[in-house]
Amino acid sequence: MRIPELNNGALLPLAESFYTIQGEGYNTGKAAFFIRLGGCDVGCSWCDAKETWNPGLYPPTPIEKIVDEAVKYKAKSIVITGGEPLTYPLDKLCNLLKKESMQIFLETSGSYPLSGFFDWICLSPKKRKPPVGNIHHLASELKVIIEKEEDLFWAEENRAKAAESTLLYLQPEWSRRVEIMPLIVEYVKNNPAWSISLQTHKYMNIP
Question: What is the pLDDT of residues 153-173, one digit of tens each?
Fold first, then answer.
């Protein structure tokens, strides 16, 4: 993965940005402006944003331009996602967003060291490239994608590393949701520390 020159985070490879409703996890149903950065080397086979993997496809964008677009909308919630957003230094972007009194939410696999500062961190760990550092203890929520039964063991491995206050979610992999949902339902009934997260934006047919 060739990462473009980004001037220590003053420029970022913006794949897309859009105003929508958060579809997953604890903040489901809330309006938010999404900043999707290009570039990810985790390589999940079921990723629904594979077009973002190559950061070279997205011209480095000044963070001032990104923030100028974000502040046009009524919601003061910003979701930084990807790709894998922690591929890049996010301190400068977060500083600009905070100057606009934004709440900043991060969606990450945790596969790169944490940069920036956030009001909410959604950690979605992947077996192909596990989290690094102490992000488990900093995560507001732990959201594990379940494609097959063995993934429940991976979920529990990550649960053991998380803080007691971290909210726990199991989310069915979209293409296998019909087959895997009964398993998740029974698991949560027997392990009620977990909750179920659904990709509600797909049911609503919105970004």
Answer: 999 999 999 999 999 999 999
pTM attached to this predicted model: 0.95
C-alpha 150/C-alpha 58 separation (Å) is 35
Coil vs helix vs strand at 160: helix
Region class of 72: left (phi > 0), else alpha (psi between -120 and 50), else beta: alpha
- Please tell me whether residue 19 adopts helix, strand or coil conformation: strand
For the segment 39-98, what is each residue's pLDDT rounded down to a tens digit?
999 999 889 889 999 999 998 999 999 999 999 999 999 999 999 999 999 999 999 999
Task: Find the length of the chain.
Answer: 207
The architecture (CATH level 2) of 7-204 comes to: Alpha-Beta Barrel (3.20)
What distance in Å separates the CA atoms of residue 34 and residue 22, rounded to the nearest whole number? 9
Strands (E), 47-137: 60-62, 77-81, 103-108, 120-123
Domain limits of the chain? Answer: 7-204
